[in-house]
């Protein structure tokens, strides 16, 4: 699934009470608010960040 495409990433659950590294991962993805959507290239680095906090996100192909 990796390579070439774009991913639409939306924060669906709150980061309140989550570990610091999970909050920093959200910030690294460019997400600062609940329900905010960002679009990123589908790379292994982005996939790794998504995997770390997939319980907070909704991800779809863009």
TrEMBL record:
GO CC terms: cytosolic large ribosomal subunit
Domain of life the protein comes from: Bacteria
Keywords: Ribonucleoprotein, Ribosomal protein
Annotated GO MF terms: structural constituent of ribosome
Gene3D superfamilies reported for this sequence: Ribosomal protein L30, ferredoxin-like fold domain
Domain spans labelled Large ribosomal subunit protein uL30-like ferredoxin-like fold: 7-56
Gene Ontology terms describing biological process: translation
Family matches, as CDD domains: Ribosomal_L30 (cd01658)
InterPro entries given in the database record: Ribo_uL30_ferredoxin-like_sf, Ribosomal_uL30_bac-type, Ribosomal_uL30_ferredoxin-like
Assembly, per entry: Part of the 50S ribosomal subunit.
PANTHER family listed in its UniProt record: LARGE RIBOSOMAL SUBUNIT PROTEIN UL30M, MITOCHONDRIAL RIBOSOMAL PROTEIN L30
Family, similarity comment: Belongs to the universal ribosomal protein uL30 family.
NCBIfam families per UniProt: rpmD_bact (TIGR01308)
Name this polypeptide is given: 50S ribosomal protein L30
């Amino acid at each position: 699934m990796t390579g070439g495409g774009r991913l639409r990433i939306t924060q669906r659950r709150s980061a309140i009470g989550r570990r610091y590294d999970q909050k920093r991962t959200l910030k690294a993805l460019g997400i600062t608010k609940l329900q905010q959507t960002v679009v990123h290239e589908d790379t292994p680095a982005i996939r790794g960040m998504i995997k770390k906090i997939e319980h907070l996100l909704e991800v779809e192909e863009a």
